[in-house]
Amino acid sequence: MAKIAFLGLGNMGGPMSANLANAGHEVAGFDVVPEARDKAAAAGVTPFESAAEVAKGAEVIITMLPNGALVEQVVREVLDAEDVPRLFIDSSTIAVAEAREIASLVEDAGSRFLDAPVSGGVAGSQAGTLAFMVGGSKEAFDEAHSILEPMAKSVTHCGATGNGQAVKACNNMILAVQQIVLAEAIVLGERLGLEHQAFYDVVSNATGNSWSLSVNAPVPDVVPTSPANHDFAPGFSSALMLKDLKLAMASAEETGTDTELGRIAAQQYGAFVDEGNGGLDFSAIINEVRNRR
Ligand code: NAD
User: 20 to 30 A from 80, CA-CA: which of 66, 220, 270, 286?
Assistant: First the structure.
């Protein structure tokens, strides 16, 4: 069992750190918000008051923070401290370029870095069924595998540093576009007189099927667990989808890739969030489609 320092005990990091503690690891945690520390402490995580303190004596450090600037800030704090953990795993969603820069900082200090973003949302973090997509060396991946396991349904090595973030950005760009085109098709079907159930029964068994329909259907009653059945409480919020689309668009620009549908999706989620819908599940974009004329 490993000595793990976990930084960022929020909606995702709180349950993830609890699952590591439940698996028998020695988990120390830090969050700038005292309530997050208290909640993690109640779940078996030993709370500390700073990044430097929590990392003291830890073999592995896991970060689950809102953005790349914060990841870099805490990584620098830990690298400046006395004891530097040998393996850094960042599960936050950040830019590919940021992950590669932070990896250089860590490797210059003689430790290993993996970017290991996740999909599966808060429900997956609670159930220990996240999908981890990991970038970094094979040696670091092999070392991290047993650490990630108690939090995971799958752990996939995607190649060099930054590739975890790269595949996450690509996946979520596909997802956003699919959720929008599905909404357009459902609204078109409504206006042609089609019942939601008939639409679902055919499309979910046909070539137009997707996770957006079979799990996240944006109309009530066809998939009982989808956010549309409870006023679009997330799930995966529109604000987080917009964040991920912006990261994908930054990578598209850096690589000179024309991702036209991704760009339209980013514009549409941008407008949806600007109108105050950031807290709704991203499948609520169907409301925007209904209002278009
Ligand atoms: P969150 O805001 O609930 O949690 C982030 C935590 O980091 C907060 O508790 C905050 O207080 C803490 N924090 C901020 N600065 C800190 C610092 N300097 N030191 C220590 N703690 C600090 O966010 P979340 O939903 O848990 O998301 C975390 C990351 O996971 C994000 O990068 C997000 O994009 C990604 N993600 C989220 C989901 C989801 O469904 N929520 C799904 C996949 C990926």
Answer: 66
Could you tell me if 65 and 138 lie in one domain? yes
Q: Is the pTM of this model over 0.85?
A: yes
Ligand 1 pocket member 247 (CB < 6 A): no
| Amino acid code (one letter) for 94 | I
Q: Which residues are catalytic?
A: 168
Side chain identity at 151, as an amino acid letter?
M
DSSP state of 31: -
- Which residue lies with its CA nearest to atom 12 of ligand 1? 8
Residue to mutate (ligand 1; options 7, 31, 71, 237; most atoms within 8 A of CB): 31
106/179 same-domain check = no
d(CA 105, CA 101): 7
Domain residue limits at 116: 3-161
Number of domains in the chain: 2
- 82 shares a domain with 51: yes
Same domain, 149 and 212: no
Q: Which amino acid is at 25?
A: H
Q: What tens digit of pLDDT does each residue of 95-127 get?
A: 999 999 999 999 999 999 999 999 999 999 999
- Unique residue bearing structure tokens 């830890």: 58
